[in-house]
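Hi all, a correction to my earlier message: I attached the wrong file for histidine kinase. Here's the right sequence:
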Amino acid sequence: MPIRDRPHRFGRDRRSPEGSLPPTPARAPAPAQGPDRSASARRNAVAGVCLRAAVIAMLVAGEATSRPGFGLTGERLGVTLLTIAASVALALTIISRLPVALPRRWDKALVEAVLIGFVIVLSIALDAVSHAGPAVGVLMFGVGAAAARHPLRRSLPLLLLALASLAAVFSGMLPVTELTGAAADRTDRGLSLCVSVCVVFTVAYAIRERRAATAAQAGEAVLAERARIAREIHDILAHSLSAQIVHLEGARLLLRADRSQEALDRVERARELAKNGLEEARRAVAALRDDMPPLPAALAALAEDFHSSTGRECGLDVRGPERRLPPEIELAVIRTAQEAVTNVRRHAPGSPAAVRLSFRDGECELEVVNPPSAEPGTPGGGYGLVGMRERAELLGGTLEAGATGDGFLVRLRVPA
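and the right structure:
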């Protein structure tokens, strides 16, 4: 049937009397960024602006109080011009991050990297002219900002630029000014600055990589949590819906045999299962908390439900000293037992089941067995077994499922 001819999935045809579909409502806008994340971004932006402003203030105050200081002649003029240029470049790195500072087609990160390159070169030249500490501090800040804020393909050229500029100045290839001191002292100072630049770059880049790894781990944790919740909801619905199908099929057969009262009991039981399944689905996210019932009690309730719904026995045998296990382990055992018992209902109707729970040192084992059934069962796709096996592997355990000489066996072993 073509899609346009299908009635609305909830039963009533929503087309207008003229036969046309009602107008599609406008898509709701995407939800805004969470308040915590946006507040954190604002705090980081303000901290970056304050840090750059502090570096500019430190540079100006340090050069003003150091020799030769500011002036309009000789070395003082060079110090003045280089300080102004470095301060302007640092200020532009702040402005370049503003949303309205540059055209949208410009790469703001690339512009900031270029400005940091100017800051590095100007600070090296200023250090050669003034022989003062503030210029070295600006140099280290520029190298650290390049490594911490930009990927290696952009930060590494800036590191090489700094090393090349230092080598050119302190080797005399670019005589910015006549450096004082012996040639050996100039070489030692140049090597010391090169080593310091490399150390600052390495530390800043390591911090950047650690932050990236932390963010990646957080993203993987979110994806794993979503997959776990999806697995929980699947297991809950598979258990409850399969049991409802059994009851409704029984009700249908009873109605054909004019046994209406028994059929009504089956429908009531299916309704109760649907209600319980909905409540359990609502609690799926909180199922890993410590308010879960102990394993023996949960398995006893499962066995009782199997008996009341099928009329067949479901024995429970608990071996070993009982103890509470980690919530995720207990949940895996319960969900595996639910899936295995549901499979008995579906694939071996009329067959009893037996559940064995064994507490051992460092391990917990669950076994669900059932003899062969003479009645034909409902074929399945095997996705339940795949989900149980994935759940066991995520916890470092194993799951075995297959036919035996006495019927069918599901065995789960998990560390505990």
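Sorry for the mix-up. Confidence is low (pLDDT under 50) at residues 1-35, 177-182.
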